[in-house]
Amino acid sequence: MVDLEETGNLMVLRYLGPPEPGDETAYLDALEQVGARSAPFALILVLGGIGKLSAAAERAQALWFKRTRADLDRRCRGLVIVRPGFEEASADVFRRLWTFPIAIAPDEAAARTTVRTYLA
After folding, report:
1. Which pLDDT does position 54 carry in this prediction?
2. Where are the beta strands (DSSP E) in 8-75?
3. What is the pLDDT of residue 85?
């Protein structure tokens, strides 16, 4: 299940399992919406139970990172990642992509608390 919630200056992208047909396409479409946002925002990314992306989706995601990097650096105030087993070393990969703050949270409620500091 993929869901993109936009409330004010907060975007929450959820990609949760179990995997369903069309999820990868919906996820990539949601990334495009995040990248196209013209106003400043903060992002919560909630991932769980989805397994690995296909090779084609991995490539598309990598191209999205490259294509939107500069714009996201200008507009995104911070990212909080919620993903079981996600550790600081994994977050460091994202920190090399972007200059905005990136944090890890154990659940969406904690992520919402953290993201408020980025929007203050």
Report:
1. 95
2. 10-16, 41-48
3. 85
The strand pairing partners of 104, in sequence order, are 81
**Which phi and psi (to 5°) does residue 76 adopt?**
-80, 130
86-107, pLDDT tens digit by residue? 888 889 988 999 999 999 999 9
Q: How far is CA 16 from CA 21, 24, 71, 87, 106, in A?
A: 13, 11, 26, 18, 15
Task: With H, G, I as helix, E, B as strand and everything else as coil, classify residue 27.
Answer: helix
Give the number of other CB atoms < 10 A from CB of residue 82: 23
Indicate whether this model's pTM tops 0.85: yes
Find out whether 42 and 12 touch, Cβ atoms under 8 Å.
no
Under 8 Å between Cβ of 66 and 31: no
**Max CA separation in the chain (angstroms):** 38
Question: Nearest Cα to 87, choosing from 109, 65, 107, 105?
Answer: 105
Segments of the chain with pLDDT less than 70: none
The pair of structure tokens assigned to 69 is 């990097």
